[in-house]
Amino acid sequence: MALLTALHGEYGDTADALRVDGRALSREALLGAASAVADRVAGAPALAVLARPTLETVVAVVGGLLAGVPVVPLPPDSGPKERAHILRDSGAALLAHAVGEPVPQDGVPEGVGALPVDPAERSAARHAEPPADATGFVLYTSGTTGAPKGAVIGRAAIAADLDALAAAWRWTAEDTLVHGLPLFHVHGLLLGVLGALRTGGRLVHTGRPTPDAYAAAGGSLYFGVPTVWSRLAADPAAAARLAPARLLVSGSAPLPVPVFEKLAALTGHAPIERYGMTESLITVSTRADGERRPGSVGLPVEGVRTRLVGEDGEPVPYDGESVGELQVSGPTLFSGYLNRPDADAEAWTADGWFRTGDVAVIGEDGFHRIVGRASVDLIKSGGYRIGAGEVEAALRDHPAVADAAVIGAPDADLGQAIVAYVVPEGSVTGDQLTAFVAERLSVHKRPRRVVLVPELPRNALGKVLKKQLLSEDAGR
Ligand code: MLC
Ligand code: AMP
């Protein structure tokens, strides 16, 4: 069966089946434009896509998928260092971008050719469906240290996850999905674009996920990260305009209970909360036809199994109180990290389960509650996953930085905000350091605050005491 079922005429068509930031395409037009991309990329080792929130990005991604070429979404604001790593590590031969749009020069290795994408182009060629076990994407995601790792995601995993979510959320061709999330992650791209192209409903991508844009979009199904929902809950007039919708879905970070409650009161819809990871796709969710409990992510989706494991390696009871590491298995899991056998060895258990690194509680009724991350060094800010180590390494590249430690400080808007504690050597300001990081890494990895200190608290082994830094920071 095709991955993007709806592209092949199964659910009919409309002139605005797909709308991104105000520009629309029918599914037939998307198929023609994406086939033109597929004609040009067929046989390439991988296709990188400069993933701005545009129609061109969707056309390029679908083109890569039609051709059976692994797609590597490149965050459009990634600095040269991050860009070079992603392009080199993935082995991408081509970088797709909107025709007429400037392509970054820095950090694009020699031999990576630019591929201008024009949504007005059409090709009548029809590419044979690649095998289900072929790679769909290599998605770069942060670990606690080092450069981002490429998670290799199979087409079958995507199909399995989308079908499981369609069942959990009763997501059908009747739905109009609305969101404005970035097109280089699981949430915005795999669920938010491919989901619509598999279930057959319309898609409205709002460019940015602002309360006004969501209010104006008139959808039935809305996706957002908690920051988006909390901004919407702070705008009662916009929130009230979501009342006619069918389902609001939150994920990518914990949805604070007060935001859940406010949203329910303003829109009349208790939001669905679901949990996932780049590596596992979405594995746990509350259901459209089930209880939507604030602070809980519900039950494993169809085909997925979960278990809780204690620090001693023993199973943790499902009593609603005992915490353990959440491990997952099932058809939605990724195939492994690209070029990183060391990371694979850490991530998988001997019996084939994936260690999420999240700490959770499971109740007697099977409902899952995510308590937090096992490591303070994996930060979620605005739903973006950011490794403290990567930001620290970027800061240490600055000649006036002797030492640096990055924490995720609790933040009402972003969940966590990146705060850098820096020991300077010579004269440097916080703003200069923030700008320095922004030149190297994606914008969302910039520290929101830089605190200059004479030294960092360390234990006898020389390890920075991040928990101490977090509590000191809270007192500032
Ligand atoms: C940002 N800005 C900064 C800054 N960081 N300025 C100074 N210093 C910094 N450190 C700038 C921005 O460039 C922007 O400028 C302005 O400040 C507002 O930025 P912001 O507060 O970040 O707001 P916004 O850009 O609106 O971002 C919030 C957000 C965004 C929620 C829209 O964080 C977002 O899109 N998050 C989604 C992440 C996501 O999709 N994660 C899914 C991962 S997949 P200007 O000039 O541009 O306005 C996954 C699996 C799963 O997790 O389970 O789903
Ligand atoms: P990413 O790889 O960007 O998809 O980030 C995955 C991480 O996001 C998970 O390991 C969790 O820490 C976090 N996450 C995703 N969804 C939720 C949720 N509903 N509640 C709490 N944390 C979540």
How would you describe this protein?
The chain is globular and about 65 Å long. It starts with 17 loop residues before the first strand and ends with a helix. The chain folds into 3 domains: 24-153, 3-Layer(aba) Sandwich (Rossmann fold), CATH 3.40.50; 176-373, 3-Layer(aba) Sandwich (Rossmann fold), CATH 3.40.50; 382-474, GMP Synthetase, Chain A, domain 3 (2-Layer Sandwich). The longest helix is centred in the N-terminal third of the chain and has 15 residues, at 27-41. The chain has a 9-stranded mixed beta sheet. The model has no long low-confidence stretch (mean pLDDT 97). By secondary structure, the protein is an alpha/beta fold. Helix 7 crosses helix 9. It has 13 helices and 25 strands. It binds malonyl-coenzyme A (MLC) and adenosine monophosphate. Malonyl-coenzyme A is lined by residues 181-182, 185-188, 209, 225, 227-228, 251-252, 276-278, 282, 382-384, 434, 443-444, 446-448. Malonyl-coenzyme A binds at residues 181-182, 185-188, 209, 225, 227-228, 251-252, 276-278, 282, 382-384, 434, 443-444, 446-448.
Total strand segments: 25
Q: What is the CATH-assigned architecture of the largest domain?
A: 3-Layer(aba) Sandwich
Q: How do the strands of the widest beta sheet line up side by side?
A: 2-1-10-9-11-12-13-14-15
Q: Provide the residue-averaged pLDDT.
A: 97
Indicate the percent of residues in helices.
Answer: 25-40%
Amino-to-carboxy terminus distance: 57 Å
Strand percentage lies at: 25-35%
Number of domains: 3
Which CATH C-level class of the largest domain is it? Answer: Alpha Beta
- Uncertain segments are none
Number of helices: 13
**CATH superfamily annotation of the largest domain:** ANL, N-terminal domain
